[in-house]
Amino acid sequence: MPSLEVSHRSTVTPDQIDDLGHMNVRYYGINASVGTTALCERLGIARPPMRSSYTRHHHEQMEGADLVV
């Protein structure tokens, strides 16, 4: 199976961590949005206003984790 194209990479920083030591849920959405915008720009299409989105996270992310969208 061919590999998927990466549209965004980042690392979980200390300011993104919640009281339980995991990345705060809002940063999952922010990273997904940045990745979607980058993909649309690369494809040369205007990104439509997003009313809702679906993301799937396989496990909690901790400080220093590498994120790939």
Summarize the structure.
The chain has 69 residues and is α+β, with helices and mostly antiparallel strands. The chain is built from one helix and two strands, in the order βαβ.
Can you tell me about this structure?
This protein is 28% helix and 9% strand. The protein has 1 helix and 2 strands. It has 69 residues and is α+β, with helices and mostly antiparallel strands. The protein has one helix spanning 25-43; strands at residues 9-11, 66-68. The chain has a two-stranded antiparallel sheet with strand order 1-2. The protein is globular. The chain has one domain (9-68).
Helix content: 25-40%
Instruction: Determine the N-to-C terminus distance.
Output: 18 Å
Spans of at least 5 consecutive residues whose pLDDT stays below 50 are none
Number of strands: 2
User: Would you tell me the structural class of the helices and strands?
Assistant: alpha+beta
SSE ordering:
EHE
Helix and strand arrangement:
Blueprint (H helix, E strand, L loop, with lengths): L8 E3 L13 H19 L22 E3 L1
Antiparallel strand pairs: 1-2
List the main descriptive attributes of the protein structure presented here.
single chain; 69 residues; alpha+beta; two-stranded antiparallel sheet; 1 helix; 2 strands
